[in-house]
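Justification of resources, computational component.

The compute hours requested in this renewal are based largely on the per-chain cost of generating structure records like the one below. Each record pairs the submitted sequence with a full structure-token output. That output is archived, and it is also reused by downstream analysis tasks.
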Amino acid sequence: MDSLNLRTKVITEINLVPPDKLEELYNLIHYFRLGVESSKVSLNQTMQFAGCWNDMSDEIFANFNEEISTRRQQAFLGRRSDEASFD
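The structure output for this chain reads:
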């Protein structure tokens, strides 16, 4: 369904809402729109980091990737020894 047709259907439905329920509907639409806008901002902030490792040489990136893997293994190794056994 195209955007114009869908917008027309939404407006038609809004016109059928009883006047005493319009404030509730407005609040719903308003907060929905704000949520959509804030998620776009969040995505844009996240995407600023996309490709930030493009200028790394393959050797530096490989070392970096290996270091991350080693640090994760060390971090989880400590957690596993702290866990209680349920046997």
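Residues 53 and 61 are 8 Å apart (CA to CA). Residues 53-82 form one domain.
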